[in-house]
Description:
heterodimer, A: alpha+beta, 4-stranded antiparallel β-sheet, two-stranded parallel ribbon, B: Multidrug efflux transporter AcrB transmembrane fold, elongated
Amino acid sequence: MEFFKIRKDIPFMRHALVFNVISFLTFAAAVFFLFSRGLHLSVEFTGGTVMEVAYSQPADLEKIRGTVAKLGYQDIQVQNFGTARDVLIRLPAQKGTTSAAQSDKVFAELCVVAGAQMQPRDPTKPEQLVCLDAAKTQVVDLRRTEFVGPQVGQELATDGLKALGMVVVGIMIYLSFRFEWKYAVAGIIANLHDVIIILGFFAFFQWEFSLSVLAAVLAVLGYSVNESVVIFDRIRENFRKFRKLETTEIIDNAITSTISRTIITHGSTQIMVLSMLLFGGPTLYYFALALTIGICFGIYSSVFVAAALAMWLGIKREDLIRTPVKREGDPDDPNAGAAV
Amino acid sequence: MNRYPVWKYAIIVIALLMGAIYTLPNFFGEAPAVQVSSSRATLKIDSTTLVRVEEALKAAAVSANAIGLEGTSVRARFDSGTEQLKAKDAIQKALSPDGTDNGYVVALNLVSRSPAWLSALHASPMYLGLDLRGGVHFLLQVDMQAALTKKTESFAGDIRFSMRDKNVRHAGINRNGQTIDIRFRDSQTLDAAKRLMADQFPDLAVVDAPEGTEYKMTVTIRPEAARLVQEQALKQNIVTLHNRINELGVAEPVIQQQGLDRIVVQLPGIQDVAQAKRLIGRTATLEMRLVDDSAEARAAETGTGPVPFGTERFFERDGRAVIVKRNVILTGESLTDAQPGFDSQTQQPKVDLTVDAKGGRIMRDTSRENLRKRMAVLLFEKDKGEVLTAPVIQGELGNRFQISGSMTVAEANDLALLLRAGSLAAPMEIIEERTIGPSLGAENIAKGFDSVKWGFLIILVFMAAYYMLFGLISGIALAVNLLLLVSVLSMLQATLTLPGMAAMALALGMAIDSNVLINERVREELRQGASPQAAITTGYDRAWATILDSNITTLIAGVALLAFGSGPVRGFAVVHCIGILTSMFSAVFFSRGLVNFWYGRQKKLKSISIGTVWRPDSGGALTKSK
């Protein structure tokens, strides 16, 4: 099998300007939504309590919302996830009461509203209460509670930003060392472009931005720079190999000859991510979603943003081959020594 | 030309073997078990405990699959959860017949089913995080300011006492937050006070200034000393938490310091969060009271008479009754330190106690009046008192005194720890809490496993279809990557969480990148007319530079996550980083080994099976390479 039967180099760079404008517009839109709507941060960042309860029957969300609201909470969220029987409840952090008291109280109330009572299942352990109705079946089950203090949330956010900063600086240094500063700048801008667009998506759709999404975003940062590195690698090689070609032709050739690899690699990674999206359950859902967006824009940005930016920055053959090469080209080059 | 020397194959075989051995325990699953361990330094778990457990099980007619002494605990494995519960009750009854806490912790546990020879190689299954096995996670914040304020208060008392002792006349000592203000009427007294402070309180920093006609001295705890106070407060809280959590009977609790003022507590498999929380937040108090030595009290001690008026009956840890007066001499608040040591004269183990100035004064008066009488140290927890020790007062005591006598070194250590750990050094509050039910944990495992499985299979099929034999080799390399990744994680006993499993899936998706790079490169060489053997060599060599660059950039991101991430992010980052490293081995070194093994010997190799090599100059006609 061969999917990519490309006879001539595709003139990617001829349309670079158009694509750059498109990129810029998407980027601007992402920034706009980030500022106008903001991210829907998870409880890990904002602080508060999350409860996951499972009903034996499909749950009535309005009733649950009413029950919780009656306890004096404002700004609560009640939503289904996974199945109609699983409900996620978010409570803001309250001063004065502990999260345990909060969740115990809410759960006891939900239990009563569901027509059952909190009672010990095992008479020898009176401390372990579960919600049982008259027929001794468990009506509601508290599956998970999570509480994060607001201060911890703050720290997570700053740590996340620090990690982001360190990734950017680390990659810049490495790329300037391996290639040249122009490549480093182009690579990192293409990269941040991806990250901002992912964040823009999360802001626009108000998807929940949790710690695992942050991990996905940072993974994309490392992953999509890969793409740019592979293309830059080819550009460097081409500069050595084809001495007479124009810079744009060199870049076109580099992208064309790596395009099959780009698509196949991303396809494979996407298969994995897709499998997480389908089988991973609610915990991995947004993580996989962030990666999907990251992968799609990663392809786009490495071809049209990174390479084009490198071109605008004016990469030259002389930049990479610092010490004038006296030997006749690459020893592996079959055309070495041939006069054109 | 494409041959590996024997040592390279040897490395591959060894790596595969190690990978297989350390991955193996993950397949055996876990068996329900009952674990008996000790919560006290004085109580050794040894073969006699083992015999007692065996007998208890025999008496209760519960048959265990295996009982063994493993390190400092006895573990018995069972077939089912119901047998495990029965066995737990039987063992608990046998070890402490009257239901009191006597140092044995009997806990339900899950133990790997892997055979003994694997355990002997220290091969154990991956350590699952709480989100995969269910349990409770707490992050506690220690209120260091409160600890410092408490310490300042105790220093203020000490200064007041020393100044009176040395006859330095101050005009008032006030604690103001974490500073102490002392006023003096004249400069002579100020100088005397300064000498005293320098002499007796090296941990305090002193600044003085004239204030009107008077002089004011401002005393603060030196930063080094303050740091020490905070460290000790944190350590003491951890010790206290350990003691309390032992009561819960959790098999493998994690109690760790995080940062400067935080403690992480993880209790796997705990169902009753409310009880765990009550236990953690509990305040224990220490009290010192006089022992009643009257004839009636003696009678009450042996159980032959009623407990006299104004006294109470408590038990020592070994079960002996002690009749103690109700009147409390000192509480744990006055106790500032307790350290084990050796008596300089008798060379016997002892415990040194330090109480604050107020406590010292009370101690001096009490001891003077009650020479040769016994004083009991009681620990109250859950409103239940217990006599830690009841030594005889041998002389007039001050604010430093010692408990010595027929103690072993271990007992002295234990007592010092109990005295210190009786109460929390500083208040704590829960700032983060996660509870994951065990069924959710099992679901999470299944979900994570499914994502890895399906993604892996689809990639395998695609690679084999697209790149033929080279695709198959890439697939095998990917499987080896998974094997190595799992074995390294098992070896390091790094905690595997659901984001970790996601990282595993992602690592596989990204690891295939290296093989795609190589395969495309080899095809390209073939397209340009290179001979098959040359195509393999140059293909691998040229792809290597790219692979290295791209993996290092990814690794930079991974390390940043590891450095700054916490919780789920860290779980992700660990697997991500290890995955990148193992992929470099499997995708490049190992797959080249397979290719060399298959094609390397054939001198006149005409074609290789790498799928279609399409040439633009062949006028669109497909030239199949095989």
